[in-house]
Amino acid sequence: xxxxxxxxxxxxxxxxxxxxxxxxxxxxxxxxxxxxxxxxxxxxxxxxxxxxxxxxxxxxxxxxxxxxxxxxxxxxxxxxxxxxxxxxxxxxxxxxxxxxxxxxxxxxxxxxxxxxxxxxxxxxxxxxxxxxxxxxxxxxxxxxxxxxxxxxxxxxxxxxxxxxxxxxxxxxxxxxxxxx
Length: 180
Fold this sequence. Notes:
Elements: H1 3-21, E1 29-33, E2 46-49, E3 52-56, H2 57-66, H3 69-95, H4 102-113, H5 122-129, H6 132-147, H7 160-173
Parallel strand pairs: 1-3
Antiparallel strand pairs: 2-3
């Protein structure tokens, strides 16, 4: 598989998740960048901003080297969920309600305003992973993979229980059986 093949797959996985979530993805641009200003290491894979999804091209090369296609799906499902979260927050601001619980939406809104960015270090990775937006996005990625028959989940041990609990909530919302 070439980098161009991977880029097509990334778009395909992202659009698949957006369609499940009801997120309009047609105007979301994929921007590929190498390690530098935005991405410090291959452990900082993707980042959302407005209508752009920034993707670490060095991470793509690492995925190809490791032949780890699981990560491609997982990350795109995860990132699509972030766009869903932004959509829900915007809907809540306009209508005063949305399809998620108000407490969850307010927490997401707070985290957007005070976001702890993964800079690729152990400390920032752990701090980033504890945010409810990240737990929710990881949980959604697990549900999407489960729908495709993939039962593997690579979640930090300290986040396992919280993430699986949220994955079960999301699965029930979609009328699916729960995950392990």
